[in-house]
Amino acid sequence: MERIVSLEGVSVRYDDCTAIENASLDIFDNDFIGIIGPNGGGKTSLIKAILGSVSYEGRIEIAPSLFRNGQRLIGYMPQQSIFDRTFPITVADVVMSGLQSERGFWHRYGSNERQRAAELMQRTGIDAIANRQIGEISGGQMQRALLCRAIIAEPRLLIMDEPTTYVDNQFEGELYAMLEQLSAKMAIVMVSHDVGTISSHVKSIVCVNRTVHRHDSNVITQEQLDNYNCPIQIVTHGHVAHTVLRHHENDGCCGGCCSEHK
């Protein structure tokens, strides 16, 4: 296995607030990682540090194999809430924008690139709305467009922040099937609040609650979550649908003072 990303002693701070503290984590070329943790625990700050979109202390190394023509082969599917739905572009424009880091904003895309975009939109069921403005489509359709955008350049690492938000149950199943196929070609790191669902798909789990702990299995117990200082609940299944709730102290949260918590 090739180590493609390595974090050592990484901290992310917003003014006087610490979102991530002294985190170390290795990501390998065959990884399929689920990142879990409480709201405001630093999950988004961690992936922003890897993407280089937030200032951090410590060391992050990206393997040379993650570069092509000077561009990093990292696909990113952000939370939909940060995407401006009023911007006057079409669904196809969103998908094609995933090639801008390689081709540049004013590049005229060729037939092969357009064919790749068409195939992805067909695969995700949005080919019929390719020419519609993004302000006219549903949240689930926008998620599908953002997924196509993230993988059109065929990255070696795909980072996804809450990808199942706004999607219906049918596409959620289709999404995980796609990700399992993609995981044969690229490493995947996925932030999710749905521990029960992702644990049946990912290979390993990373708990983030200001500190970062990797668990090299997709099976995780409440005891392990407690040991990792990861105060989230585990949903159990039985003859009667139920959830066991437990009070957790907010040890790892900085109190909501930084943008990670808002």
Could you outline the blueprint of secondary structure elements for this entry?
Blueprint: E1 3-14, E2 17-28, E3 32-36, H1 43-51, E4 57-62, E5 67-68, E6 71-72, E7 74-77, H2 91-96, H3 100-103, H4 111-123, H5 139-151, E8 157-161, H6 169-182, E9 187-191, H7 195-198, E10 204-209, E11 211-215, H8 222-227, E12 235-236, E13 242-243
Parallel strand pairs: 3-9, 3-10, 7-8, 8-9
Antiparallel strand pairs: 1-2, 1-4, 5-6, 10-11, 12-13
Describe this structure as you would to a colleague.
By secondary structure, the chain is α/β, with parallel strands linked by helices. The chain has a single domain, classed as P-loop containing nucleotide triphosphate hydrolases (Rossmann fold, 3-Layer(aba) Sandwich). Helices cover 26% and strands 26% of the residues.
Features:
three-stranded antiparallel β-sheet; 262 residues; alpha/beta; Rossmann fold; six-stranded mixed β-sheet
Quick summary of this structure?
The chain is of the alpha/beta class. It has 8 helices and 13 strands. Helices cover 26% and strands 26% of the residues.
What is the string of helix and strand elements? EEEHEEEEHHHHEHEHEEHEE
Number of strands: 13
CATH class: Alpha Beta
CATH architecture classification name? 3-Layer(aba) Sandwich
C-alpha end-to-end distance: 38 Å
Strand content: 25-35%
Oligomer: single chain
Uncertain spans: 235-257
